[in-house]
Write a structure and sequence with these properties.
Oligomer: single chain
Radius of gyration: 18 Å
Number of strands: 11
Helix content: under 10%
Number of helices: 0
Strand content: over 45%
Structural class: mainly beta
Order of helices and strands: EEEEEEEEEEE
Length: 171
Amino acid sequence: NNGGFENGTTGWSPSGTAKLTSEKASEGNQSIKMTCDGSNQGYIESNQIDVEAEKTYKVSYKLYIEDQGDGNDAQCYALVYAFDASGNVISGGVIDESGRWASTGAWETISFDYKTPTGAKSIRIDFMHNAVAGTSYWDDVQITLEEAVYADVKKEYLNNGGFENGTTGWS
């Protein structure tokens, strides 16, 4: 609900070197900045977000790597934790490592699919810049339910349902 950090860190809990900043933003005026010196880390976690069990969600965010201390691995990760109705963690950890190899000096959109496990009632999204020297900015976090597109009651999946290939397959 505050994926662009325009309402500060409402809905998020930053720790370590993670700080709200207006130095850079992909959209709007604010983002989260994490600066690491090689011995510390930046970390921010969302509040728990209600979900449906056994459904696929697309998580996307924008990442800007200002510099990488070792030149090739920014050590930026996305983590997802799933919780049951009692608030107990039922799965979790590093889900996406794409941020490790993000381009330096430009905003990059990173996305991944996450299927909630059986019994999941909520998830938490965490972002981490882990220990390697460098600076990263995080912005525009979005979580959307991926719904299948069906052709008819036989539930045949459509080809080109997103129209990425124009109207090929449609009349």
